[in-house]
From TrEMBL:
Protein's recorded name: Threonine dehydratase
SUPFAM superfamilies per record: ACT-like (SSF55021), Tryptophan synthase beta subunit-like PLP-dependent enzymes (SSF53686)
Top-level class of the enzyme under EC nomenclature: lyase
Enzyme Commission number(s): 4.3.1.19
Cofactor(s) this protein cannot do without: pyridoxal 5'-phosphate
Organism (species): Oryza barthii
Family as reported in the entry's similarity comment: Belongs to the serine/threonine dehydratase family.
Reactions performed catalytically: L-threonine = 2-oxobutanoate + NH4(+)
Length: 505
């Protein structure tokens, strides 16, 4: 009841708009439901975050406002705090990691806030912000774990209830730290308890799902950065308390599914969402298909549109995979005349959208990497079975991120490299990141493979091969740990061995 009152008395409309609730006609027709989109991507800072930030800051005393506010954020929360401070006439300091792209911190500066770049990670930036908060007597504005922030986000639930009269099956909400879903659930469950509140998380950033499963907050060791707006290692204390009581479930979606929903939104409304902004759409589609939902009203919140332009290349590559309009495969073909024609006949009516092959005079079989478009699971399975029955070994790479991000670009690059370790590193996007890596490992060990794939502000996804004798592995591991970059071994990934290592496996 306390949250209901707080939501109703919120002052968010001094800065925020009542975002429209629009019917997604194409998606609705495809899914067989009435899918409504709550357009929080149309807010003044292209995200819902300003609601919570302003609601908390508007309740500060004049003395607190005069001392100023501070927050730590590399994204939408920073812009929400900056715009709120501008409207309230107070000084704001925004601490952002040094890895934050210039386009983001410049946009915060244009709103009148002072930007301080500190630390390589969000945790380091937050630690500095809280330290400075105590030193200067500023008020720290958290991104999600505060009752006033939660109540501000809860106004979205209030608007949905007012805008959509009649039956409503479920509201799908993107989940990071939990402020948005906690606020919506606190309001909606009080006035429309029959409406399901369902969170959506990336499968590699599922802190809320794990926390609800275990009955206590769980901290992730690593978190996927593609949907950076929800890349949170641990959910809030108050948000978890509310979600445990009020949320009906969590749907987990893949990176490919998120990309497919970004494309869906562009085709539906000619708008480009950021990955976290498309999360609820991907979750709503997965839920409706899984449960065979028909004829119901469902709402998905498009939470933000602060998309980095350089991320669009990856989105376009993965969107058709996520929508199952394209599959990525590898087939071994005999290096003999007529084998390509035989391969094309076996592909049949499937449309080849990409084909990569390089002749190897020393190999008996050639490895062909290709994509096929517009398929069903049955069609794809039948094609693979045709290949196998003709003794053309074929592997489906569609769900293997390593293959899609890196190995598809190494066609013809198999070789036997002694003592080779293969790791994926996440390089921070800042000058000197590569040299820091090279200083750690070179010339101590030979680098035998290197493929760099930029991912915008979340850092570069880099595949590295290094020749390290077994007796020197402990030294390598120590240097890798001290480097401070996230990394993981891919040595046992079957697709690595298939494409780059041993063609006989």
């Amino acid at each position: 009841m306390e949250y209901l009152t707080s939501v109703l008395s919120s002052k968010v409309y001094d800065v925020a708009i009542e975002s429209p609730l629009q019917l997604a006609t194409k998606l609705s027709e495809r899914l067989g439901v009435n899918l409504w989109i709550k357009r929080e991507d149309l807010q003044p800072v292209f995200s819902f975050k300003l609601r919570g930030a302003y609601n908390m800051m508007a309740k500060l005393s004049r003395e607190q406002l005069e001392r100023g506010v501070i927050c730590s954020s590399a994204g939408n929360h920073a812009q929400g705090v900056a715009l709120s401070a501008q409207r309230l006439g107070c000084d704001a300091v925004i601490v952002m990691p040094v890895t934050t792209p210039e386009i983001k911190w410049r946009s915060v500066e244009r709103l009148g806030a002072t930007v301080v770049l500190k630390g390589d990670s969000y945790d380091e930036a937050q630690s500095y912000a809280k330290q400075r908060c105590e030193q200067e007597g500023r008020t720290f504005i958290p991104p999600f774990d505060h009752p006033d922030v939660i109540s501000g986000q809860g106004t979205i639930g209030m608007e949905i209830v007012r805008q959509l009269q009649g039956p409503l099956h479920a509201i799908f909400v993107p989940v990071g730290g939990g402020g948005l879903i906690a606020g919506i659930a606190a309001y909606v469950k009080r006035v429309r308890p029959e409406v399901k509140i369902i969170g959506v998380e990336p499968s590699d950033a599922n802190a809320m799902a794990l926390s609800l499963c275990h009955g206590q907050r769980v901290m992730l060791e690593q978190v996927g950065g593609f949907a950076d707006g929800v890349a949170v290692k641990v959910v809030g204390e108050e948000t978890f308390r509310l979600c445990r009581e009020l949320v009906d479930g969590i749907v987990l979606v893949s990176r490919d599914a998120i990309c497919a929903s970004i494309k869906d939104m562009f085709e539906e409304k000619r708008s480009i969402l950021e990955p976290a902004g498309a999360l609820a759409l991907a979750g709503a589609e997965a839920y409706c298909k899984y449960y065979g939902l028909k004829g119901e009203n469902v709402v998905a919140i498009t939470s933000g549109a602060n998309m980095n332009f350089d991320r669009l290349r990856l989105v376009t590559e993965l969107a058709d995979v996520g929508r199952k309009r394209e599959a990525v495969l590898a087939t071994f073909l005999p290096e003999e005349q007529g084998s390509f024609k035989k391969f094309a006949e076996l592909v049949g009516r499937m449309n080849i959208t990409e084909f990569k092959y390089r002749y190897d005079c020393n190999a008996k079989d050639a490895l062909v990497l290709y994509s096929v478009g517009i398929y069903t699971d049955d069609e794809l399975k039948a094609m693979v079975e045709r290949m196998e029955s003709s003794k053309l070994r074929t592997v489906d790479l569609t769900d293997n991120d390593l293959a899609k991000d890196h190995l598809r670009y190494f066609i013809g690059g198999r070789s036997e490299v002694t003592d080779e370790l293969v790791y994926r590193f996440i390089f921070p996007e800042r000058p000197g990141a590569l040299m820091k890596f090279l200083d750690a490992f070179s010339p101590r060990w030979n680098i035998s493979l290197f493929h760099y794939r930029a991912q915008g502000e979340t850092g570069a996804n880099v595949l590295v091969g290094i020749q390290v004798p077994p007796e020197e592995f402990d030294e390598f591991k120590s240097r890798a740990d001290n480097l401070g970059y996230e990394y993981m071994s891919e040595l046992n990934n079957e697709i690595y061995r298939l494409l780059l290592r041993d063609p006989k496996i």
